[in-house]
Design brief:
Keywords: CBS domain, Schiff base. This is Fructose-6-phosphate aldolase, TalC/MipB family. By secondary structure, the protein is an alpha/beta fold. 45% of the residues lie in helices and 19% in strands. It has an eight-stranded parallel β-barrel with strand order 1-2-3-4-5-6-7-8, surrounded by four helices. It has a three-stranded mixed β-sheet with strand order 9-10-11. 35% of the residues are buried.
């Protein structure tokens, strides 16, 4: 199924055609009016240089006027091999379609609302026959049945026309087009962007990314440069200041050789304040006992850090090398990577 973008917005067009597989662009005078375009010919030439195939309107109140308008547009410098002339269905419209097709030009007979109209376009040799699904549904009609009948007519009688599913309002319309077996679908950018979206896909992708990071990234890649440390001769207030300065909920305790001998956490702070009151802030760390903290190597994979956080239910892990603290990672460092 060919996929066209239905737009005249330059930014949308540039973004959409980066996909690399769109067949072309459909546009209308209404789109141009909404965008405030005043130089229609100039805009048409600009669009023609941006897309593989451009479908533009060739309007007129008679066969001659429609044909002449198509020729005038070609005279601007459009390539007949990459330009499709859109003509509203009518008796003079299908007659003009026949003349242009006989000249080797491509024609889209659109604004089709009935199978009879579609048949006349097919018989005239239209390259595209374009029912407007959304508009027809707005009027309470079974637009999908009409599109299906058009596809069946092409297949049964062997017409060369491609049925174009247009006036797309939502992603479900594109699914309908695929199920019916239309040859072409023209879609607004807002809808096209939603075609790859699904919550289960999003969750699955996030999980794959999370697990990949856990198995490939090292602790050193997320460890901050801050290395909050204090000595046993410092006070709890000093520990609080050091934690606040570096934005961690813990601080490493080191001896005179810079070796790690303990860790003081914000949990320790709350517990001591509750038990002894504010006076505890002036006490030195020598007045307390500390267990050797859980550490991790900077070369360890994040998988190991993740397991420690989960198993030990702690918020900070000291990163140590040769017994000396060189930094710290916080559980929020993993959260920031969408891992935890």
């Amino acid at each position: 199924m060919e996929l066209y973008l239905d737009s005249v917005d330059i930014k949308e067009i540039e973004e959409a055609f980066k996909l690399g597989f769109l067949t072309g662009l459909t546009t209308t005078p209404t789109f141009m009016h909404r965008e405030g375009v005043t130089d229609i010919d100039g805009m048409i030439l600009k669009l023609a240089k941006m897309v593989p195939i451009l479908q533009i309107e060739a309007l007129g109140e008679s066969v001659e006027e429609i044909v002449n308008e198509a020729h005038r547009l070609l005279g601007l410098g459009l390539d007949p091999k990459t330009t499709v002339f859109k003509i509203p269905v009518s008796l003079h419209g299908v007659a003009a379609c026949k003349k242009l097709v006989d000249e080797g030009l491509m024609v889209n007979v659109h604004l089709v609302y009935t199978l009879q109209q579609a048949y006349m376009a097919m018989a005239a040799g239209a390259t595209y026959v374009c029912p407007l699904v959304g508009r027809l549904q707005d009027q309470g009609h079974d637009a999908l049945a009409l599109v299906e009948q058009c596809v069946q007519a092409v297949n049964y009688y062997g017409y060369n026309s491609k049925i174009m599913f247009s006036s797309v309002r939502h992603a479900e319309h594109v699914r309908n087009a695929i199920n019916i077996g239309v040859h072409t679908c023209t879609v607004p950018w807002k809808v096209m962007k939603a075609l790859t979206e699904n919550n289960f896909t999003t969750l699955g992708t996030q999980q794959f990314i999370e697990h990949t990071k856990l198995m490939t990234m090292k602790v050193s890649e997320v460890m901050k440069s801050a290395n909050p440390t204090i000595s046993l001769s410092d006070t709890i207030l000093d520990a609080l200041v050091e934690m606040s300065k570096h934005g961690f909920g813990a601080v490493s305790i080191i001896d005179e050789n810079q070796k790690l001998i303990g860790v003081f956490t914000d949990g320790d702070l709350r517990r001591n304040l509750q038990e002894q009151g504010e006076s505890v802030l002036q006490k030195k760390l020598t007045d307390f006992q500390f267990n050797l903290p859980i550490t991790i190597s900077p070369s360890a994979l994040l998988q190991e850090a993740h397991q420690i956080f989960k198993k030990k239910e702690i918020d900070n892990i000291v990163v140590a090398e040769n017994g000396k603290p060189i930094g710290m990672i916080d559980v929020q460092d993993l959260v920031g990577l969408d891992i935890y």
